[in-house]
UniProtKB/TrEMBL annotation:
<dbReference type="Pfam" id="PF02082">
    <property type="entry name" value="Rrf2"/>
</dbReference>
<keyword id="KW-0238">DNA-binding</keyword>
<protein>
    <submittedName>
        <fullName>Transcriptional regulator</fullName>
    </submittedName>
</protein>
<dbReference type="GO" id="GO:0003677">
    <property type="term" value="F:DNA binding"/>
</dbReference>
<dbReference type="InterPro" id="IPR000944">
    <property type="entry name" value="Tscrpt_reg_Rrf2"/>
</dbReference>
<dbReference type="GO" id="GO:0005829">
    <property type="term" value="C:cytosol"/>
</dbReference>
<dbReference type="InterPro" id="IPR036388">
    <property type="entry name" value="WH-like_DNA-bd_sf"/>
</dbReference>
<dbReference type="GO" id="GO:0003700">
    <property type="term" value="F:DNA-binding transcription factor activity"/>
</dbReference>
<dbReference type="InterPro" id="IPR036390">
    <property type="entry name" value="WH_DNA-bd_sf"/>
</dbReference>
Amino acid sequence: MRLTKFTDLALRAVMRLAVSTQDGSMTTREVAEAMEVPYAHMAKAVTRLQHLGVVDARRGRGGGLELTELGRQASVGWLVRELEGDDEVVACEGGPPCPLRAACRLRGALRTAQEAFYTALDPLTVGELVASPTGPVLLGLVGGPRTA
Ligand code: SF4
């Protein structure tokens, strides 16, 4: 199973913000630069994280993004489910629809496998993702400008 790029960007953002209490809050642009991804893509991911209540944005001088307590305690499985949405791992209904879709055992097996993938991520929290060695590496990341 492969995560969407959008989910991957959002997970990178929450990991970087999970360690930002150690070196000050960051703007979306700074997170994008640290993760070496385009600002516009990161901005969309951060907006979704705000809607989920995982990230807060403080405006004005000294403002920036911060991970909420909900975000810190969030299950990675829950977060990935929310970010990925309801899409199946195969496009049975799309362009053109598969003729087996109404009675396909493979489709059911893939749904079960997809749920098992998420379930394996359920016990892990965002806070746990940034334990060493990941946290120290995140704190050392300094990216170049990304404007696209
Ligand atoms: S064979 Fe089954 S799983 Fe594959 S596209 Fe068709 S309905 Fe979906």
